[in-house]
Amino acid sequence: MVLALLIIINTTFKWIVIAQHNLTPYGTATQSSWLDGGIGHAQFAIQPPISNAFSMTICTHTNLSDKPAWWMFQFSFGSAFITEVQIYYRHGAAYRMDGFKLYVTNTSTVPPDGYLCYEDPDPGFPNITQTIPCFQFGKYVIYYDTKGDGTYGPLVELCYVAIYGCPRGMWGPNCNNACSSLCVNQHCHPGNGSCVYGCDPQQCLYTKCNIYTGACTKGCANGWEGQYCLCTRCRYIF
Ligand SMILES: *[C@@H]1O[C@H](CO)[C@@H](O)[C@H](O)[C@H]1NC(C)=O
Ligand SMILES: *[C@@H]1O[C@H](CO)[C@@H](O)[C@H](O)[C@H]1NC(C)=O
Ligand SMILES: *[C@@H]1O[C@H](CO)[C@@H](O)[C@H](O)[C@H]1NC(C)=O
Ligand SMILES: *[C@@H]1O[C@H](CO)[C@@H](O)[C@H](O)[C@H]1NC(C)=O
Asked: Per-residue DSSP letters for 157-184?
């Protein structure tokens, strides 16, 4: 029964298993411009429905001849460890997202100054539904386009965006496990809790520590005590 359920989850909702939490409910969106009349707001891309169906009240829409055109998401809680980004673009309008780029950054600078997760390659138009893996730590996710539509220039018409990952220092399917404080910079992979930059072995014997917990696996270096070898007189601390 459990196995059957796992198989169903694995085949039907694979992204749920690997992708962690959708973080777009926890933040705000902005964009480069609006069409006259003030519709097609940036935040429509982080509100349901989750589909490619287009209308000016459920998808974003930047102004005509706005170059570059961009859409930016900022996490309300600061930084996140992102695993992947899912994009639902306007149905039938792949030519308008031609050449788009997706970035994760630490600043709201445009052109984006950060990590380029993906650039739509030539030739051909991109899929209107994109799942882009991007293992990055950052504060902003930016959809950026300088090419797009041959007539109107780039247009951003995002109907839904999901950004999977966990807030800084957390991991697990619901992001409610804390990364070990012994992970370097307290960074761990959202999917499995292992330290991204390794564990801090400074006080460990033979500098050996557990990549998940940071606990010293071979005991402590001379003078240090406790599971994590962080104290010299542990009884006063624990
Ligand atoms: C949209 O762009 C047009 C020029 O293409 C400009 O005249 C208009 O003011 C812009 N509208 C807004 C809301 O920025
Ligand atoms: C953002 O800054 C953090 C901390 O300095 C760094 O680890 C991370 O790689 C940066 N992210 C990007 C996308 O540049
Ligand atoms: C486009 O989407 C289809 C169906 O989801 C997939 O099979 C194909 O590999 C995708 N193509 C690209 C270039 O991403
Ligand atoms: C944890 O997940 C990350 C990202 O998928 C992977 O690179 C890493 O090897 C995993 N760590 C372990 C110990 O499985």
From this structure: -EEEEEEEEEETTEESTTS-EEPPTTBG
